[in-house]
Predict the 3D structure of the following.
Amino acid sequence: MTQLWAVLRKDLLIEWRARAHGVALVSFAITLLLLFSFAVGPNANVLRAHASAYLWMGLVLTSSLQLARSFQVETESNALDTLVLAPVSPPALFYGKALSNTLQLFGVGLVSLPAVIALYDVEVKEPAGLLLLTLILGALGLAAPGTLYAGLTARLAARQLMLPLLLFPLVVPCLLAAVKATTLILQGDPMDQIGSWLTLLACFDALYWSLCGVLFGKVIDA
Amino acid sequence: MRWELPLTALGLLLLVVGHGIGLFVAPPEAMMGDVGRILYAHVPTAWVALVAYLAAFVAAVGSLWSGRFTWDAAVAATVEVGVVLNGLLLAQGSIWARPTWGVYWTWDPRLTTTAVMFVMFVGVLLLRSLVEVAERRLTVTAVAGIVAFANVPVVYFSVKWWRTLHQDFSSPETVSSPMVTPLRIAAFGMLFVAIGIAVMRWRAIYAAVQRETESPALPDMPAPLKLPEVP
Amino acid sequence: MDSPLPEPAAAPVIEAAGLCRRFGGRWAFARVDLRLMAGERLLIVGANGSGKTTLLRALSTSLPPTEGRLRLFGMDPVAAPEAVRSRVALLSHAVGLYEDLSGAQNLSLFARLMGKEPGRVAALLEQVGLDPRRADPIRTYSAGMRKRLCVALVLLKEPALVLLDEPFAALDPKGMDQMGELIAALPGAVVIASHQVERAGALCSRAMLLEGGLPRWQGPARSAWAAWTAVHGARE
């Protein structure tokens, strides 16, 4: 447990120390939102109807950059070897990094929200707390498999391509559920369906947070 | 080449028989007419593709557990067969959809899952091709394979849910069941062909990995060093 | 996180028999037999590419051997990696620390990860002479400073076995003297791989010469230089 906490703290400290990267990441996400509006055209109704899709697509695309970076930090000066020999238990390393990635993705999502509301002219019809919950559950869903795949592809020359190629099809269920839930939160939920979507999201999270934690040990071994 | 050649030959024969009956002898499909005959190819392909991926999952678990290259080669061979069948499935799905609904693609849960599966397992093969060290390649392939397979039911159920709560298209469920016998014949035919090809690929891949990891002879111990007398 | 040492005081720190490691078709080192007891110091000499670094990495459990038997503190590193790794420290070519964090932050992080007292960090930084730069990110450190930080990390760990890969490389003469003092003060067993045959030899009791990955000679450290010359000819 102390190890998990130490790893989490370390990751967040590094991101804070090199916060230019974080700013760049957020700028990237917002630029994507802008691009979506330009691509779709100035049709306010269409933009409003699909706002949640743009939000989540922006987050998914940004995640591939953020996740790759989280391991670049480890391989840059071979710190991963020092961690393994410390010794750090692989589950502690996985969950520490995955939590750090979750928080960072949640942060990007949070900062994107005002941009979404402004650019696409949406209102939040259901309680805002649900929106935050959806963001967290979605971030958790991206972070767990993302951290595993980032570790898997960390030393490959083609990692910038392989990480998204592996991750994106995997998180389809997470994307579906998150977009659905967000749409209902923004447009109103007459039939009380948000709960079902959030449950699906939570199940996805539970599955991958356990499975990836188990597999991670093999991934960082030599 | 041992038992897999006759097995493949038998499988091909069964396929020809099954498809022959399905294409020419069986009555046309009640709702879809002659187009429905594609079911005789589509259903067996789907079934065997899933079997191939399941075999890959089992092999991947075995591969991680034992670290032996026999399992690793099995993962590669079964994923390859699965991907080919999966690609066929997507093509068949499109060919079927066009005359039936006028579009090339529907968001049917099964077809959608097929598309996602295809991309995932192609990703596994791509990943495999990028790793040069055999031991690392074993680990990477197995982990990617396990996660990809675990995702199959998840994708299926979420898309199903997504579709039922969002009635856009009528779902292309099998309208009336095709004749069982030619279907079964074709299914077994497909299965035998798949097994045969998988085993052939397994042999080839395993041989390649063995060549790669062949231990060269240990160098001989050199003659002991004689040092001049130290004062 | 400390599991009780299973072996009596007499068990060797390192026991290697027929240790081999290859990469593809090339043997990095082969047929290495080694027995190191607590408190002993071994010098490994050899030309570049003779397998010294790979051997050290194998001994640190960073790399599994391809063949042969390795026991550290009487334990099998494959069966009990955590118990073994908590007692071994490796000082290698690569720094292995986080560039964006400061020296103090790096050490505190690893103190927490290794279950050591974070309060010791300040004293250790002082001991290696990095106290004035403790709050600067190590991106700004010189090569010599990074080396000293790595030594601080080794001291922090209080390992029973220390493996040093070219500890004197990239150091000026004063730095080399300081490193020599630090190494001399290390308790426990030590293995040094170094080109500085005389300097490192003075710190060790035994030596091994690797040539093309094979252990060509083992003997007392004072004869290391003679062994080297016998194989490679005299240096200018």
Observations:
- Chain C has a mean pLDDT of 89.
- Residues 96-158 of chain C form one domain.
- Chain C touches chain A through 30 residues (CB under 8 Å).
